[in-house]
Amino acid sequence: MKNRPTSLLVASAALLLAAPTYALAPPAGDVHEAAVTLTGWLHVDDSFMADVTIEVDVNGEVRTAYVSNTGRFDIDLPAETSATLRFEKPGHVTKEVTVDTRHVQDGDFGGQRRRQVKLAVIMEQERFMAGLTYAGPVGNLGFEPGGGCVAVAHTRSVVPAKRRAAMEF
Fold this sequence. Notes:
The protein is mainly β. It contains 1 helix and 12 strands; from the N terminus they run αββββββββββββ. The radius of gyration is 19 Å and the shape is elongated. It starts with a helix and ends in a 9-residue tail after the last strand. The N terminus is likely disordered.
């Protein structure tokens, strides 16, 4: 019985190490290796993630990121890039977050080659938004010049959503 907690810890660690990772790799042909990994959790009311899409536009190249059943996503980005993350789910208001990786390698972070930034994105249902949508990106992530510290800006500016055209029969 003395070894039971230790054996549980070893078994748990083995499961975590064996778990697959689903990070979005940097764009093909990019000479820079990943400089920052965004690890995020997406929250939706119904907890159903199968119909969620995350599009990642890195310097004009668009890819899709994998979202786990728990809402976790991992995205690798190279240094000196500009990226837009677009979160979509039917019945929910689309959200965008911009990421600027310039200055990610500035400052002293213990010699880390790759930085990790964690974030959460909460999707609001359209029916609770009273016909409004976001005016632009809801968040901006960047890194401060010289120091490399994470700089975050949020906005919840909303505008009337475009109405869908009426169908004619």
